[in-house]
Amino acid sequence: MLKELAYIFMYRTGLRLSLVTKLYIPIAFMMFLILGINSKNTLLAAVQLAAILALELAILTYIGSLRRIAAAIALITIFIGVGLAVRVISMILGYEPVALEDMAVSTLRVVEFFLAVAIAFQWIRVSEYGWIFRRMGLKNVATLFVITLTQLSPILIAYSEALTTIRLKYGGRVLRKTVKPLVIYSFNYGRDVAEAVYMYGIPEPNIEMMIGRNDMVMMLGLTVVLAGLGILPG
Fold it and tell me: Residue 49: CB partners within 8 Å, gap ≥ 6?
């Protein structure tokens, strides 16, 4: 599970899109999921969420990371499980539970928000995030964010492999044996990264801001679709 989560934070190369497009699309999804879903009409909300899900999966397919993201979506089952558990407990205690339709809509919104975040991580380079923070005057935050996000995937993958090795060797009952070596590994890894940054610094990225034909098609198409979903009769 950790390995699938690590792949979410890995940038997919070969995408010739403007940074404007790569910022606009996931932010547009997030804002629509927060403000544009008609929660008073369950049927309309279901139509809106189905359309958003189709768009997000199409973009992830275009990026080329749908398979990995599909594996990582398994993490969202935790939210679903918690929601079902709360509903069951409420019924046992005699409280009025949340309507099943409302819970389904809320859960799907969480999943799709997660997919929008995954899109942002998949096609925006870590160095581009650093450039954005520096433009905002947050130089220290930019450095910390770039270092953290760059090293997060390798650390999660290393943890996943260590847990698998321990589980195969000792069984699931002694996973505490992984704590000490993982702490030592994290400390040594962090020290090596800090030394590299101190000695060489973080290179300046080559930011592509020019909006091309593909950028215009994607942004205008998404805007039209979201506007149409937003004005559907409730």
Answer: 37, 105, 108, 109, 112
- Torsions phi, psi for 18 (to 5 deg): -70, 150
Nearest to 32 by CA among 234, 228, 196, 233: 228
Sort 233 into a burial class: Cβ within 10 Å, 0-12 / 13-18 / 19+.
Answer: exposed
Q: Whole-model pTM? A: 0.75
Please work out, in degrees rounded to the nearest 5, the angle formed at the alpha carbon of residue 134 by the alpha carbons of 209 and 193: 110
Separation CA 207–CA 20 (nearest Å): 10
- Which tokens in the block code for residue 205? 């990225």
Amino acid identity, position 202: I
DSSP state of 95: -
pLDDT, tens digit, 9 for 90 and up, residues 128-169: 888 888 888 888 888 878 777 777 777 777 777 777 777 777
